[in-house]
Automatic annotation (TrEMBL):
InterPro entries: Rhodanese-like_dom, Rhodanese-like_dom_sf, TST/MPST-like
Name recorded for this polypeptide: Sulfurtransferase
SUPFAM superfamilies: Rhodanese/Cell cycle control phosphatase
Entry-linked PANTHER family: SULFURTRANSFERASE (PTHR11364:SF27), THIOSULFATE SULFERTANSFERASE (PTHR11364)
GO molecular function: transferase activity
EC class (word): transferase
Enzyme nomenclature, EC number: 2.8.1.-
CDD domains in alphabetical order: TST_Repeat_1 (cd01448), TST_Repeat_2 (cd01449)
Length: 272
């Protein structure tokens, strides 16, 4: 059982727990994929985690780029997050951006962070308490970022790995994108793949917006059971790579990291 994935039932029972903070991590551009009637709804007492504009490095040319520890710390404190907070993250698309936020917190040294399986749609299906979203100020928290660089990979490290192949790159984009058979969503970005990488589409770990069963995930990762190298998860822009990272927790024994820039950066900087 993955200890970082929690059910709607579990969260509903813990709503009044001291130090619990619930974060709505929905990317605004993804709201277009949700019915209008839930776009202005949040889990009761949730706080909006602005992944795109507050918790990304806006000076970086690539989307949702990894923030500095100081930026992350300041913005987390503005949300009233403390060092002893238990954090539950969710998004309005079931499972999409919430694992990215989970990974960000882990990379900043915070361990008590969990992902709501099925996100807001699952919460609503269970008729658990919701409320209309509204801007709310919070007492400043005392969160402190303590960078854990082991689970983050930058361009230079992935580039060096081309020669050594000390780590296995797992690309979680669709098979057609991985094989360069379709155009990339980002305008002007070439198609292709990182040399020596393998493909496991992230959609294979999800079923109707929730994670697949542990049995299913063990079967999916079985071809890697004899792989001893650390693995680097890559995707389009560092979002769905975190979905695969979370799905592999407790199943893959390998050390794991996410290539933050992913194909958006690689395809731009490395010519075919």
């Amino acid at each position: 059982m993955n200890p970082y994935i929690i059910s709607a039932e579990w969260l509903n029972e813990k709503l009044n727990t001291e130090n619990l903070i619930i974060l709505d991590c929905t990317l605004q551009n993804q709201l277009l994929k949700q019915p209008l009637e839930i776009q202005n709804i949040q889990i009761k007492d949730a706080r909006y985690f602005d992944l795109k504009f507050k918790f990304s490095d806006l000076s970086d040319p690539f989307p949702t780029a990894y923030p500095s520890p100081s930026q992350f710390e300041i913005e987390a404190q503005h949300l009233g997050i403390n060092t002893n907070s238990t954090i539950v993250v969710y998004d309005a698309n079931g499972i999409y951006s919430s694992p990215r936020v989970w990974w960000l917190f882990k990379s900043m040294g915070h361990q008590e962070v969990y992902v709501l399986d099925g996100g807001l749609p699952e919460w609503i299906r269970n008729d658990f308490p919701t409320e209309i979203k509204e801007a709310t100020p919070y007492p400043k928290g005392n969160f402190q970022a303590k960078l854990n660089p082991e689970i983050v990979r930058k361009f230079d490290a992935v580039c060096d790995n081309l020669a050594t192949q000390d780590e296995l790159v797992i690309d979680v984009r669709s098979e057609n994108r991985f094989n360069g058979l379709v155009k990339e969503p980002r305008e002007g970005l070439r198609s292709g793949q990182i040399d020596h990488s393998i493909n496991i589409p992230y959609t294979k770990v999800l079923n109707n917006g929730k994670f697949e069963s542990e049995e299913h995930l063990k079967h999916l990762f079985k071809p890697l059971e004899n792989e001893e190298r650390p693995v680097i998860f890559s995707c389009g822009s560092g979002i769905t790579a975190c979905v695969m990272y979370l799905a592999s927790e407790g199943i893959l024994k390998n050390k794991k990291a996410v290539y933050d820039g992913s194909w958006t950066e690689w395809g731009d900087k490395v010519k075919a």
